[in-house]
Every structure is written in C-alpha cells, then in structure tokens.
Design goal:
- The chain has about 110 residues and is mostly helical.
- It has 2 domains: about 40 residues; about 55 residues, no CATH class.
- The chain has 5 helices and no strands.
- It is elongated, with a radius of gyration of 24 Å.
- About 5% of the residues are buried.
- The mean pLDDT is about 85.
C-alpha cells in the first residue's frame, strides 16, 4: 500500500494512488469518529443517569428532559409545548450563567 502512494509520480499510475489514500482516510475517519462518539455523547448520557435522591439530581434530570422537549417539539409544532418553554428558559439561564462566569473570569 505504501508503494502505491508513490505511483502518482508515474504517468500511468495516477489512478492507483486513490486506493491507498481512500483506505488511509477511511481508517482515520473511522478511528476518530469511534473515539468521539464514545467520549462525548455516551459520557454525557452516562452523567445524566443519576439516582433521584437529592434536589440537585432532580433538577438535572428535569432540566435535561425539558431541554430535549424544546428541541423535539418547538420546531415541529407552531404552538410550543409548555415543557418546551421550560426547557427554553432553562437554556437561557444556563447560557446567561456561563456568559456571566466568563465575564467575571476576565
């Protein structure tokens, strides 16, 4: 496969170069995508599954569900579901807190 990469320097061998380049790009994309899926969304879902034994955990789960309702139901219907409105306001509070934290840190 490594020798086929050098085929681009010959007149008749330019078509042979696409095979190893495609294999290398596909392997690299597959490995990075697999690592990204495991490290980001799956870890976030795992962190959201908590026992409902404290008020903080209840707020976390209700806020997550309300925010998901906002994304699922606000675009499909012209009249938004009330839980979608709660998710919208929770996102506003979270973004405001993050922005305030950034400003105070600067």
């Amino acid at each position: 496969m490594g020798l086929l990469l050098y085929a681009r320097f010959f007149k008749n061998g330019k078509a042979l170069t696409s095979l190893p380049v495609g294999i290398l790009l596909g392997t690299g994309a597959g490995l990075s995508l697999g690592g990204t899926i495991i490290s980001q969304p799956v870890a976030q879902i795992h962190a959201t599954i908590v026992p409902l034994d404290s008020i903080d955990n209840i707020i976390l789960v209700v806020g997550t569900l309300a925010t998901m309702f906002y994304f699922f139901y606000s675009a499909a219907e012209s009249r938004a579901v009330s839980s979608a409105n709660v998710g919208r306001y929770l996102m506003m509070v979270a973004f405001g807190a993050a922005y305030g934290n950034t400003v105070m840190g600067a």
